[in-house]
Amino acid sequence: MDVWKKANQLSIDSFHLTTPLPRSEDYALTSQIRRSSNSVSGNIAEGFGRKTKKDKSYFYTVARGSAYETQSHLEYGNGVGYFSDEQTERLFLEYNELIHQLNKIMKALS
Questions:
Q1: What is the per-residue pLDDT across 33-69, written as a single tens digit (0 to 9) for each?
Q2: Is the pLDDT of residue 87 over 90?
Q3: What is the pLDDT of residue 26?
Q4: 61 close to 91: Cβ distance less than 8 angstroms
């Protein structure tokens, strides 16, 4: 699925973005971004493996929520000066595209 590939790449990009964060953020922002971004592709995969439209839609909805959560963490990281405006804007826009793709999938399931 292209949407899973995009989510997986964004998770990798988010991982690399958080690598230079201070160690004091290891159990805070670093962990939150990595978990929420990884949750997107994980929930897409789980939804793909489900049998019913209702189950599929549920996991795609959770994936979409995790994408929004990741965007929130990115904005915070930008606000405190950890990420540049360019880094934040690029990933934010990529997540918007992913959210749009998920919305189309969920609409097709309803």
A1: 999 999 999 999 999 999 999 999 999 999 999 999 9
A2: yes
A3: 85
A4: no
Mean pLDDT of the 5-33 span = 95
SS3 (DSSP) at 20: coil
Q: How far apart are CA 44 and CA 61, in angstroms?
A: 9
Contacts with 43 (C-beta within 8 Å, 6 or more apart), sequence order: 59, 60, 62, 63, 66
Name the CA dihedral angle for 46, 50, 55, 61, rounded to a multiple of 10 degrees.
30
Report all structural domains of the chain as residue ranges with CATH numbers, in order of start: 2-109 (1.20.1440.60)
Amino acid identity, position 43: N
Instruction: At 54, list the tokens.
Output: 């209702």
- Strand spans (E) along 1-110: none
Q: Which of 78, 87, 97 is nearest to 29 (CA)?
A: 78
